[in-house]
Amino acid sequence: MGKFYESSTVFHYNWQQVAQAFWKRYPNPHSSHVLTEDTISREVKGNKLFTKRLLTKTNRVPKWGERFINNAKVGIIEESVVDLNNQTLTTYTRNVGYTKVMSVIEKVVYRVSDDNPNWTVAVRSGWIDSHVFGFKHAIQAFGVERFRKNCHQMVMGFNHVLSHLYPKNTSMVTEEKSSVQEAREKLKDAAKRASDLAISKATPLVATCQNN
Predict the structure, then answer these.
(1) What is the DSSP annotation of 62-81?
(2) What is the pTM of this model?
(3) 138: left (phi > 0), else alpha (psi -120 to 50), else beta?
(4) Long-range contacts of the stretch 124-128 (C-beta < 8 A, 24+)
């Protein structure tokens, strides 16, 4: 049985913006490992858009992995479904090379956030497996860690693309953070005033008790 990894990310952009930006997320400063992307097929059925693409990626191979992999480039099949009715974008990706050494299957669901209708949540699930006798568990552990780091890079890259496509949202997020910070400062001030008031009232009482 392979290793499983799951994470979720909140993008401060609405679902329509994220769904549109998804097709423009390469290139970006955090995706130098993505070499090519080609659309194999695209079809509309009802209110759903089905797309299959082939991406070529590369990842640095650790020294111990060179005995199993002689080329760092690998093909990735990406299948996606855009559901307009439910406002979901679901992607499935899998590598088509070196699958016996390490296979990585990923599913990502982009949907409207339950906390804010103007935000989008991306739930990412990954399954990493290996069939190399004697190295299976070590390769799986390495794969999970590499997958985790790649997820972080993908999020930064996607946010970079989103911020350039929709710059107004960036200022909105900044304003929102400022509002939260301002609210925190007000709470701190209120707490301090309450504390000072309590101390001022307690001081005469303590003095009276000491005199008695």
Answers:
(1) PGGGGGT-S--EEEEEEEEE
(2) 0.78
(3) alpha
(4) 124/6, 124/7, 124/8, 124/9, 124/151, 125/4, 125/5, 125/6, 126/4, 126/5, 126/6, 126/151, 127/2, 127/3, 127/4, 127/103, 128/2, 128/3, 128/4, 128/5, 128/102, 128/103, 128/104
Q: Coil, strand or helix: which one is 194?
A: helix
Residue carrying the six token digits 């900044």:
174
Question: Quick one: tokens of 138?
Answer: 């070590």
Q: What is the pLDDT of residues 148-196, one digit of tens each?
A: 999 999 999 999 999 999 997 654 554 444 444 555 565 556 666 665 6
Report the alpha-carbon angle 75-76-80, nearest 5: 155
Q: Dig out the tokens for 140 from the structure.
A: 């799986």
The Cα–Cα gap between 98 and 102 comes to 6
